[in-house]
Design a protein that fits this description.
Length: 418
Amino acid sequence: MSAVSAGFIFCLCGFTRAVPKGVTVNGNSVGGLSVQSAVEALRKKTEEDLKGKQLKIIGAKKQYVFSYPEISYKDDFRAVLSSARKNRTYTASVKYYLCGMDEIIDAVCREEKVEKIEPYAKFNTSGEPFTYFEGNDGKQVDFSRLKADITQSLKGGFEPINIKYLTSFRQTDLSSVRQNTTLLGKFTTYFDAANTNRASNIRLASALLNGTVVEGGKTLSFNDTVGARLPERGFRTAKIIENGEYAEGVGGGVCQVSTTLYNAALLSGMAVTEYHPHSLSVGYVEPSRDAMVSGSSCDLKFKNPSATPVYIRSATKGGSVTFELYGKSDGATYSLQSSVTSIVPAEEELCTDPSLVKEGKDGIVSEGYLIINRAGFVKKIKLRTDRYAPQKRIKLAPASAEQEKEPSAEPAEPAPAA
C-alpha cells in the first residue's frame, strides 16, 4: 500500500508541477504556475486574441464572415511547458481552423453558383414577336482553391479571401438565336366583320392558335389545338358548307382560319400531311388553296421538317385574319399558284315562285402548285387537284301569253227583286 500511495503521489506531483521560473511562452510569462494553470492561461489569452480576428471570404454575391467559436485552434502548450527550462523563451504552435470547413465551403459553393444560361428568345403573342436575352456564362466556386486559401489565411494574418471561380462559357451567341426566329412566311384573308357570329368564331379560333409552338419534327393538328367547336366553348352559329349546300352550323367561319393557316404553313416550308377541300369554292381564297375542317373527321395537319421549333402567331384586325410562322429558314422562298383547268356548268331550273330563285354558280376543277426558289433554282410542285361542285341556278319562269293577257270584264248580273 505504501508503494502504491507513493506512486500516486509522484504522478499527481508530476501533473501539478510548476513551470520553471522565468519561462515565457508566445510572449506570455508563465513561470511559477502549474503546468495546468499555465496551459489554461495561454489558451485564455489565445481565445481573447482570436475573438478579435475575423475570416472574411468575399464572393460575387455576398461576403461570408467567420469568427470565434466558428474558428477554433489546436496548440502544443502542454508539450512545450512539460519540457521547459528556467529563464527560457518558447514559441508554441497555435494552428487555427474553420470548424466544419468542408460543409461551409459546400454551402458557399451553392450560394455562389451561377447556372449557365445560353442566349434565348421569349416568344410573345402580341407586340414584338420575340424578346431576346443574352444569357450568361456559368460560374462555380473552385472548391479546392477556396479550401487552400482558407487554410493559408488562418496560418497567416487572417487576410481576406477573394473567391476564385471556374467558368463554363456559353456555347451559342444571340445571332444564332435570331437566325432560329426569323419570319418564315405569313398569309392574310379577309372577312365581313359585320357578320358578327362568323367574325366571332374566326377571332376565337385564331386566338386559340396564337402562341402555338411546333417543336422540330413534330406535327400540328388544327382540331387538337383549337378543340371542339361547341357553344359552351364560345363558338356561335353561322353559315357552313354541308353536303354541297350552305347551312347554319356552330363554328361557321372556322374553316377560314384553317385555310389561312394552311397557306401560311405552305409559304413557310411546312410539310402539310392532311388537308380537305370544301365541296364548294370559297370566296376568301383562290381555288385549290382552301383547307376545310370539320369535327374530328376532317383536320388540317402539318409537320415541322426542321430540327428547331416553329412559332405561330395569329391575329384578327377589323375584317382580316393573319398567320405568321417563325423559325429557322431552310434557305428557300415559297410561293403558291392556283390554276382553274375547267368549268363545270351549273344546272338551271325554272320556277314560278320568286322566293325560290337562286343565283347559283358554275363549279370548277382546279390545281394548286407550290413554287420553291432555292438560290435561283426554281422548282414547281403540283400539290393537289380539286373539283368544286356547281350550285344549281333557279330562275323565275317567264309568264305565258294567256297569263300576260288581261282578263276581260264580265257583264254585271241584275240585282235581285226587292
